[in-house]
Specification:
- There is one protein chain.
- The chain is an alpha+beta fold and about 180 residues long.
- It has one domain.
- The protein is about 45% helix and about 15% strand.
- Helix 2 packs antiparallel against helix 4 and helix 3 crosses helix 4.
- The protein is rod-shaped.
- It starts with 5 loop residues before the first strand and ends with a helix.
Length: about 180
């Protein structure tokens, strides 16, 4: 197996990454050696949620709440035939490029739950108001309840997306540095 020194890319970032902490890693190891080294570290508990998704791709967890994210790494061979600039490696080794992705199952579940709970809330609110003020003069709850609950849906989703993206960005940068540490050994 190769010696394994990982070098940070200077200005190159994957298309989906806006954060400079997700810069590519250059290593003296070949693609299969990179995947094998990361798999070994995952078996020792160093990389949470690691699994190889192909011969030259892997995925690790990027922890975030309320919506889950993952950090996807793609290993490219360095050389004249690969289309990747050899850079400092002089034509050997590989480059690992990262992309942060949101897993869309939980946001969809969250949106469905929010939409489904709007209508049952109206009769419950009417019942509560009737219990507190027993007079039958109040029958206009729908006029203020529905606009308030429907208008808050986009704000709720925006808050959840913003919070989870910020947490995932931090976690992805941390996982990238762990991967760099594993490849440097």
């Amino acid at each position: 197996m190769g010696g394994g020194t990982a070098k940070q890319g200077v200005d190159q970032q994957p298309a989906g990454a806006r954060d400079c902490s997700l810069r590519e890693l250059r290593t003296d190891r070949t693609g299969p050696e990179v995947i094998a080294k990361l798999d070994e570290a995952a078996r020792r508990g160093k990389l949470a949620g690691f699994h190889a998704t192909g011969a030259a791709m892997f995925e690790v967890e990027a922890f975030a709440v309320p919506f889950e994210h993952s950090l996807v790494g793609t290993v490219f061979g360095v050389g004249p035939d690969s289309g990747v600039d050899a850079g400092e490696n002089g034509g050997s080794g590989s480059v690992v490029r990262f992309e942060q992705r949101m897993l869309w199952r939980m946001p969809l579940v969250w949106l469905v739950i929010l939409l489904v709970t709007i209508w049952p809330g109206l009769p419950l609110t009417e019942l509560l108001i009737d219990q507190i003020f027993p007079a039958m003069w109040w029958t206009y709850t729908a006029y203020w309840y529905l606009p308030l609950t429907i208008a808050s849906l986009p704000l709720t989703m925006w808050w959840g997306l913003k919070k989870s993206r910020a947490m995932a960005r931090e976690s992805a940068a941390e996982m990238r540095s762990k991967i760099e540490g594993v490849l440097n050994r």
